[in-house]
Write a structure and sequence with these properties.
Layout (H helix, E strand, L loop, with lengths): L1 E5 L6 H12 L2 E4 H9 L3 H27 L3 E4 L10 H8 L1 E6 L2 H8 L17 H16 L4 E4 L5 H14 L1
Parallel strand pairs: 1-3, 1-4, 2-3, 4-5
Bound molecules: shikimate-3-phosphate.
Length: 172
């Protein structure tokens, strides 16, 4: 069984994924790291060398590979993964997908500290960041909402969110 975690940058996909994988005795895969290790380049370098379009093609290829090959794993997807090609349909076909839903204000608080690691927001001025996230999330929301399960994560800790995910899985 595969579980995929979906959501905007900074929504805690990796932190929650690690906890969830531990609880289920599954393998944890951070999809960004998987791409970096496979390409032997950081995401920032891939963006720098080929731009976002090149990155999305690479991301798509590894998505199909990982969905076809892995089992008993929790995969923390990249924030943009479900938005391109028919990636969300493939994700839903091969995994139980969970959208970790969070508000732009909460995301802003988390992302401010780690802006530089994220090529899509690195050059946005701090005073424009909330608006950028709001608009970006509005554009992406329809794809995120196609996930099989949606979890509102505001004011919940990692443990509570992992338990909620497991409860949802048990109900199906
Ligand atoms: C992206 C999110 C990043 C990474 C890349 C693009 C996006 O992943 O895949 O920088 O388009 O939202 P995280 O959501 O893990 O930061």
């Amino acid at each position: 069984m595969l579980i995929s975690l979906i959501g905007y940058m900074g929504s805690g996909k990796s932190t929650i994924g690690k906890e969830l994988a531990e609880k289920l005795n599954f393998k944890f895969i951070d999809f960004d790291k998987y791409i970096e290790n496979s390409e032997n380049k950081t995401i920032v370098e891939i963006f720098k060398n080929g731009g976002e379009i090149k990155f999305r093609k690479i991301e798509r290829n590894y998505l199909l590979k990982i969905l076809g090959e892995e089992t008993n794993s929790v995969i923390a997807m990249g924030g943009g993964t479900p938005v391109y090609y028919d990636n969300i349909e493939k994700i839903n076909q091969y995994s139980a997908s969970f959208y970790l839903r969070m508000t732009p204000t909460e995301l802003y608080k988390r992302l401010l500290k780690e802006k530089n690691k994220r090529p899509l927001i690195a050059r946005i001025e701090n005073e424009n960041l909330t608006e950028f996230i709001g608009k970006h999330l509005f554009e992406r929301r329809n794809y995120y909402e196609k996930s099989k399960f949606k979890i509102d994560i505001k004011n919940k800790n990692v443990k509570q969110i992992s338990e909620e995910i497991i409860q949802n899985l048990q109900r199906t």
